[in-house]
Amino acid sequence: MLELTYYHSNEEELTFFAELILPIPVPKLFTYRVPRELVDIIKIGARVIVPFGKKQGKVFTAVVAGLHNTPPSQYQARYILELLDEYPLVTGYQLELFRWISDYYMCCIGEVMNIALPSGLKISSQSKVQYNPDFDHKELLTNSEEELLEELKNHPALSYDELGRLVGDINVPSVIKSLVGKKAVIIFEEVREKYTPKMVRKIRLHTDYEDQTQLMMLIHRLEKLPKQQEVVMRYLSHIPVQRNPELNQKGLDKGILNQDDELSQSSLQTLIKNKVFETFDVIQPRFSEMQATQAEIKLTDAQQLAATQIMTQFEQQHVVLLHGITGSGKTEVYIHLIQQALDGGSQALYLLPEIALTTQIVVRLQKVFGDKMGIYHSKFSDNERVEVWKGVLSGKYQFVVGVRSAVFLPFDNLGLIIVDEEHETSYKQHDPAPRYHARDVAIMIAHWQQAKVLLGSATPSIETYYLAQQGRYGLVELFQRYGAATLPEIILVDTKQEKKQKTMKNEFSSALLQALEMNMERKEQSILFQNRRGYSPYLQCEDCDWTSECPNCAVSLTYHQRAAELRCHYCGHKEEVPRLCPTCGSTKVRTMGYGTEKLEDQLQIIFPNARTLRMDLDTTRAKNAYQQIIQEFEQGDIDMLVGTQMITKGLDFDKVSLVGIFDADRLIHFPEFRATERAFQMITQVSGRAGRRGDRQGKVLIQTSNPQQSILQKVINGDYKGLYTEELLEREQYSYPPFTRLIKLTVRHFEQAICRQAAERLAAELTDRLGSTRVLGPEEPLVERIRNQFLFDIMIKIERGPVNMKAVKAFIQDRINDILTDKGLRQVSIVADVDCM
Ligand code: ADP
Ligand code: ZN
Ligand code: ZN
């Protein structure tokens, strides 16, 4: 409608145009016209609603990235429909960030915005149905059509859902379809904001009665109406209007006055009708107000020294690595530094890996920072995340602790960013685009806002440690556990030997069983780590070698005993468990290998009195499941916790004195260039859960078929530097990061031949220009088919140094586009993963 009004305007010189970011994977901005009444108020960074595409009523939420008065030359600009924000919701820094991410990670700016904005900030449109007043062919209607139409006549407009609720067992979509055909109804799109503030209805005394005489007269008047008088008195007992009229303005929750009996409810209604009380609504924050209870933390001497060194190094360096062993109290050092940043008037951001955030750390931080701290987590609802976003904008939250997506929050005055467990691979987003690394993005943001970055880890990534060694980052070490605690004793258990001597009980070595038993007797807790969920990774027939495989992917189906299902961990496909071998009918179908479920089962057989818990993806899907497990374990009634890598992160329990690690060999020999580094990190981190209190040294048992492996020796000795030196040599020899930058291209198609053809052509074209040492592949990845699509990988390695990466990426993108637009290679998709992990 706006479009028609302004289209014919002849004041062309007055027209303004806006460059908009639309949340779609198209590599450009879109130009729209700004309606005249918005010209003075529209601002860069505000959200707008715009029509898009040919379909009537299709709209998007877009963000204003620029304003100017040059009409587009290629197309007729359409009008912006609505402005959603009077004040920018996206800051200038953020727009710069979106641009940088889209350039660096080779994706579209719309994709960046789509991930950056919590979905509660994106409006959605919903189809609504309306009765057509011009319709006059009632004789054409069936019974159900007539019934539907009756409902529509009684309402201004209804959504499909609302209609469904009104008409019971009519198939709403199909009936509407035929009604549309008969021109009896009109369908349109209604736009609505997804974010809804939480409202509470409150009540207050009419201002007239803030005056003492008036109030006395009122009470007097109510003598004859004791119920009403009682309600007024009850109000006064909560709100001493005389002493504090301001309190009256804030009012009282309506529920508090009429909670108990119906009589007081109707009295209250009467009082409201008679204007003694008035009602009003207020927006209530979704996060309960939390008062800080702990004024200050006392650092140990070692921690204080580390903190001072960090501050000193910040004078020269933008980024400092804190290499501190598990249990050294890195969190305490962070808290100290965050307080300093906040005292200095700047904002602070504390990034944690997804899973570590749900735990005890938040409780610890809340004690110190109370409600000044925002929490940004992906398990939070849309509404909750919108409130944190707006809280940062308004200044309510000077400090946020969050997962990787918290780098997108609208900070504009950061003083300090902490990236805890900086080696964690979960900081890298895999899917969908942007495939960004939150640590690296944080360093960019800090650069723009002149903030400092503190990276923390007990097992730094090779890349980060390398940069610290090069002097590009500062380095501070904290090699002492807090209090009297020491690092646990690590023992390697030779499973080959035990198997030979037949002392293994299923997956458990006798050494581990003994240690577990002793721990139970001492009423101490144990953690068992197996990085594989489910009961067993596959089923196999002993007679014909049949194995359970996914029909859509090139992987085996995992057996889940509790759910009595076979499941694909790649595409989610589920099947019933076959009783007989599907190929030969044999009854000898066996479970092969073992996951967390099977370990928990066996524990219960071996230790019938033990109380066990399991923590893996399967047991933690519900919103609070994770915290519940942690709480139960913390309260101490649990003897053993079995889990996947989830249990390696950040957990801090007093009574854990034993950690058992299964299948270390599989971690170490995973066919991937980072396998050694990852295995070292994972084993060290999970070992670090043992003996975190001073009473007794903790113990870690690692089951391996080859205790001589040098990486295990390094784990025992806590020899991170040895690992680093050895790894670095290999990385240099085979040109891997930190000596090169990696870009992985994955080509996908439903037909293997087409996929191969596209991948080979792409690789050849890239090799032509970049040379064969820089382009590897195409190669089939470990899992060469997922969801029925075949995959080929091309790895591009560009040496660090004076290479113009921007030009390289532009060239790669150009070659990709060339293939994507080739009609002979229709439906090929190509994904670029920059700095792939
Ligand atoms: P890290 O993150 O380095 O593994 P944490 O920060 O979790 O270690 O600290 C380990 C434990 O020691 C925690 O329970 C923590 O509360 C305690 N702790 C560390 N430093 C202090 C301190 N200065 N005062 C009190 N408790 C501390
Ligand atoms: Zn068989
Ligand atoms: Zn599958």
TrEMBL record:
Enzyme's top EC category: isomerase
Cofactor comment text: Binds 2 zinc ions per subunit.
GO CC aspect terms: primosome complex
Sequence positions that bind Zn(2+) 2: 550, 553, 568, 571
Binding site for Zn(2+) 1: 541, 544, 581, 584
CDD domains noted in UniProt: DEXHc_priA, SF2_C_priA
SUPFAM superfamilies associated with the record: P-loop containing nucleoside triphosphate hydrolases (SSF52540)
GO biological process: one example: double-strand break repair
EC number(s) given by UniProt: 5.6.2.4
GO MF terms, alphabetically ordered: 3'-5' DNA helicase activity; ATP binding; ATP hydrolysis activity; DNA binding; zinc ion binding
Named cofactor requirement(s): Zn(2+)
Subunit-structure text: Component of the replication restart primosome.
Family: Belongs to the helicase family. PriA subfamily.
HAMAP family, A to Z: PriA
Function, as annotated: Initiates the restart of stalled replication forks, which reloads the replicative helicase on sites other than the origin of replication. Recognizes and binds to abandoned replication forks and remodels them to uncover a helicase loading site. Promotes assembly of the primosome at these replication forks.
Protein name stated in the entry: Replication restart protein PriA
Species name: Arsenicibacter rosenii
